[in-house]
Amino acid sequence: MRQAEDIVWSTITESAKRRFDYAGFKDRLSKSGDERVAEYILFQIITGYAEELSREEFVPKIAGDLQLFGYAFSAQELDGFLADKKEVLNKEICAAKEALSGFAQGEDASSLLIEIRRLLP
To answer: Rounded to a whole number, what is the largest CA-CA distance in the chain?
Structure first.
């Protein structure tokens, strides 16, 4: 079952990569050559907005995650990057809300995947 959940989240993340300069974002976070950092941070951005975290909760959480990976960004720099992401990633955020709600209610991941794909043209 975990694999089906991973497909739901991967579908949302892959859609988000097409909405902004993901290549530039990935290059900035891939000094180690491991692009999983960029995917993880993108996933955290989407789910943070989907969980409706306040800016005060959200920015330090992302900054802390980045620090764990060895990246130092000022709060101002990170805030600037995140400024338009709520609008740019709106469809993915809505899809993540649907997924979070569905998983919390025990919905089947395959059914959720159908709904997610409908939300992400």
So the answer is: 41
